[in-house]
Design goal:
With about 700 residues, the protein is α/β, with parallel strands linked by helices. About 50% of the residues lie in helices and about 10% in strands. Strands 13-12-11-14-15-16-17-18 form an 8-stranded mixed beta sheet. A 6-stranded mixed beta sheet has the order 1-2-3-5-7-10, with helices on both faces. A 4-stranded mixed beta sheet has the order 4-6-8-9. β11, α14 and β12 form a beta-alpha-beta unit.
């Protein structure tokens, strides 16, 4: 059995300490050890109370999900918790650190909860497609009320113990040594009569909600789409609703148990667990050992105070790292800093930070105009527009200014990192750090290694991503890297289908139904149609493909997207919700006829396959070329950078579930009917199918 529980006695208090490093999950040995420890303490008449805590940095960080789907070994968690709840001696949970999922549920069957101030407490089960399955949906509403309990469970985000204390989850915050404080708290309980206190017997906080169908309807109505699309969300709400409306606590537990089983068997669960493990796997770089030295980042520099530069500066300020922003144009600097302040003030208005927090963050951001003022920064990130020659000039300047060992990073979304590095005398310190817009919100950081980038710079950039609250994925240097290279195929196929008779609106509806936050044409309207049009105009290039001609024709009509209230869609009075426009449909048909395309009918399944199979085929090439390390790296890029639904696990995971033999057969069929290099099957895909393997078989390679 995995994990142990140490037993000791302090005066008249039994102390059970869980040791299952690094985060004390509820493995078989922990469950059995707790059960045996409670039984021993309850049988000892010299003991009046029991304290349970964790060794190291965690109390209990949830279930051991590596045991999911395997035969039960040792005692079941439900049986252990029921035994705890039947205790006639008070049990005090001493929450020393991470207290998540099943760990939180163990704390809820304890009679009292004390905690270190910063110990994270939460029920994150929704993030892996399940629900709190050991009474959490029944006990937490009785402890703090249904509204507050649903907020905790449907977000899945942990809160510090001090906040949990404020809403009644934690009984007392322990400053200083947690075990000593918990034992003293237990002695206080004993001195007061050693009363037990079972949450299952509480009903005051739920009575006002009984029969209140409007409350639960409102909860469902206000859910953000990301949560609304999850099967577990509705199951959690139904569990709370059942517990609130029933006097039979055990019936509520049975409903929760059955609902957990439904979630466990639902395909979303497998996809979300894949994402959970993948987000940890992408941090492992085979040729960059775990003990690689990492450079300390105490101060950063940013070149450019535009949309990207300002957003990146906010990322640093948000985690308390001072940042200097270089902008040689005084008006641009003033405008950029004004946008940053406005963003922070909006956050303050929404209650996400305090007004004091606005000033604290702004004080960490310094606008400068002289590159020489960057001489002491530990990393500098260039965030100017995508022009390789201008970027080279910037890096030549930085090479002369930045201290030896400082990291020189570019925020380029697809330009040649090696060409940029060649403009310096230290290419080993040059790396790509591709933030996604808006940089202060989007989770993805695409780290791009050049041919000469050293391990220390890679390790530093990957750790920086984590420090900034990003999920960092490493890419080798190649045109457009991982994400945008695949996105190009996605956008190209969308344009091809419109040329062949699909409407932009039909394509967008299909993607929305699949779970994307927006379709390709909604995304283009958001970004702005004029970017490509202006670039082609400046370069004196005539539009060649259908997508270019369609895009440029709209721009020539003054339709630039949301910024002009008209693009592929019409946006009435500045609304961000677009309306269809027959003029756009007629324009598409007219250009398609001129270019010799024959109109055909499209169904949703064909649209879905044309878009995603093009992406998957390109993903296979990216793996074959060594641009991405593993299939899961591609999945994490597409989920966090491009909105691929987590509930589908990422494009490569999704392709596995379609059956790679079916994917390959359709790609070959598209090659026959559509033609083009895009439908030339990737050799890796053909090899996997021939060997009866999937992309998941490559994860450990």
């Amino acid at each position: 059995m995995k994990g142990t529980v140490h037993y000791e006695v302090r005066d008249n208090v039994a102390l059970l300490t869980i040791e299952n490093p690094p985060v004390n999950p509820l493995s078989s040995g922990v469950r059995q050890g707790l059960y045996d420890g409670f039984a021993k303490a309850l049988a000892d008449d010299t003991l009046d109370a029991i304290v349970v805590t964790g060794a190291g940095r965690a109390f209990i960080a949830g279930a051991d999900i590596t045991e999911f789907g395997k035969p039960l070994e040792g005692i079941d968690l439900h049986e252990m918790c029921a035994f705890m709840e039947s205790s006639e001696k008070p049990i005090i949970a001493a929450i020393n650190g991470l207290c998540l999922g099943g760990g939180f549920e163990v704390a809820l069957v304890s009679d009292y909860r004390v905690a270190a101030p910063d110990a994270p407490i939460g029920l994150p089960e929704i993030k892996i497609g399940v629900l709190p399955g050991c009474g959490g949906t029944q006990r937490l509403p009785r402890l703090i009320g249904p509204k507050e309990a649903l907020d905790v469970m449907l977000s899945g985000d942990p809160m510090p113990a001090a906040e949990a204390h404020g809403i009644g989850i934690v009984d007392e915050i322990i400053e200083g040594e947690i075990v000593d404080g918990a034992v003293a708290y237990a002695q206080k309980i004993v001195a007061a009569g050693a009363a037990t206190r079972k949450i299952r017997d509480e009903s005051t906080r739920i009575e006002a909600y009984r029969g209140n169908d409007e409350f639960f309807a409102e909860v469902r109505k206000k859910l953000p789409r990301k949560r609304r699309d999850r099967f577990a969300t509705e199951m959690i709400i139904q569990c709370v609703e059942t517990g609130v409306n029933s006097d039979d606590f055990d019936a509520g537990l049975q409903f929760e148990f059955a609902s957990f089983d439904k979630c466990f068997k639902h395909p979303q669960r497998e996809a979300l667990i894949h994402v959970f493990f993948s987000e940890r796997e992408v941090a492992r770089i085979p040729d960059v050992p775990k003990d690689t030295p990492v450079k300390t980042i105490e101060e950063a520099g940013i070149i450019g105070c535009g949309t990207m530069g300002g957003g990146i500066a906010m990322c640093f300020a948000n985690v308390g790292i001072p940042v200097k922003v270089v902008e040689t144009d005084g008006e641009a600097m003033e405008r950029g800093l004004g946008v940053i302040r406005n963003n922070y003030e909006i956050q303050a208005q929404r209650g996400r930070i305090t007004k004091t927090g606005v000033e604290e963050r702004m004080n960490l951001i310094t606008g400068i105009s002289d590159y020489n003022d960057l001489k002491d920064v530990d990393i500098v990130i260039e965030a100017i527009y995508e022009n390789i020659d201008v970027k080279k000039e910037v890096f030549e300047k930085l090479d002369k200014v930045i201290k030896p060992g400082g990291v020189l990073a570019s925020n380029t979304s697809g330009l040649d990192i090696d060409a940029i590095a060649a403009a310096t005398s230290r290419p080993e310190d040059v790396i790509g750090t591709h933030f996604f817009s808006p940089a202060n919100i989007m989770r993805l950081l695409e780290v791009v290694r050049g041919e000469k980038t050293n391990a220390e710079s890679i390790a530093t950039a990957m750790k920086l991503g984590k420090t900034l609250g990003k999920v960092a994925v490493l890419s080798r240097n190649a045109p457009s890297f991982i994400g945008n290279r695949m996105l190009n195929k996605y956008g190209y196929q969308a344009g091809e289908m419109v040329a062949q008779g699909a409407s932009p609106y039909q394509i967008d509806r299909t993607m929305l139904a699949f779970g994307m936050p927006m379709g390709p044409y909604q995304m283009d309207d958001l970004v702005g149609l004029d970017l490509g049009w202006r670039a082609r105009s400046l370069a004196g290039k005539e539009p060649q493909s259908f997508p270019e001609r369609f895009n440029d024709a709209l721009c020539e009509m003054g339709r630039f997207g949301q910024k002009s209230s008209r693009g592929y869609y019409i946006y009435p009075e500045g609304s961000r919700t677009g309306e269809q426009d027959s003029e756009v449909l007629e324009l598409a048909k007219s250009i398609a006829r001129e270019m010799g395309f024959a109109a055909t009918e499209f169904d949703s399944e064909t649209i879905l396959k044309r878009l995603w199979y093009a992406v998957v085929n390109e993903g296979a090439r990216i793996l074959e070329d060594g641009i991405a390390i593993r299939p899961c790296d591609i999945d994490i890029v597409y989920i966090n950078g491009y909105g691929f639904p987590e509930t589908e696990g990422g494009p490569m995971f999704w392709a596995d579930r379609q059956g790679l033999d079916h994917v390959l057969a359709d790609i070959k069929a598209f090659k026959e009917t559509c033609g083009g290099e895009i439908w030339e099957p990737a050799p890796l895909l053909e090899r996997l199918v021939a060997e009866g393997k999937t992309f998941s078989n490559l994860q450990g390679s």
